[in-house]
Amino acid sequence: MENNNKKSSAFYSYILNPDIKFDTQEDGEKIYLLLRSHPFTQLRWVLTSILFFILFFVFNFFPQSFFNLGQILIINLFFIVFILSYIWFNILNWYFNVGIITNKRVIDIDFYAVLYKEITNAQLGRIEDTTVKSGGYIESFFDYGSIFVQTAGTEANVEFINVPHPSDAVQIINKLLSKKHGF
Description:
The chain is α+β, with helices and mostly antiparallel strands. It has two domains: 6-36 and 96-177, Pleckstrin-homology domain (PH domain)/Phosphotyrosine-binding domain (PTB) (PH-domain like, Roll), CATH 2.30.29.30; 45-90. It is built from four helices and eight strands. The strands form two sheets. The chain has a five-stranded antiparallel beta sheet. The protein is elongated and about 75 Å long. This is DUF304 domain-containing protein.
């Protein structure tokens, strides 16, 4: 589980042994893996943003005889703020929705609408099963899928949706589980 390549970026989706800290990190808790959604899964909002910019420029290309200059300026400012806000919120959503695998637990941090966050964690000793779901040509080609961590009892299950290299991540979880259980 050692990271041979110490070069990493905050914008990677699969980071082995990241040098980060998080809110609920306990003393002696080592982070082995940080996961974000695969960049390919972000293509929808990127293309939508490009379409918004194209529509914005098309709107400004044709002379607007029924608007005066002040009204056109206000409409342009509104569209620019809307487009940039859309891009910013999608970047924040991608960046802060993470999965963390440590030597003690598996954590899923989800932010909704910037103001609300949900943190689900499963202690390694409570994990019953890990499942990888990846199907279709695109998921196979870009090597991404979803990981489902099932826990014992009534604890919430942990889900990492559309993460890169899901089989490798599950191997890391299984190695940590076997160390924890002494296998």
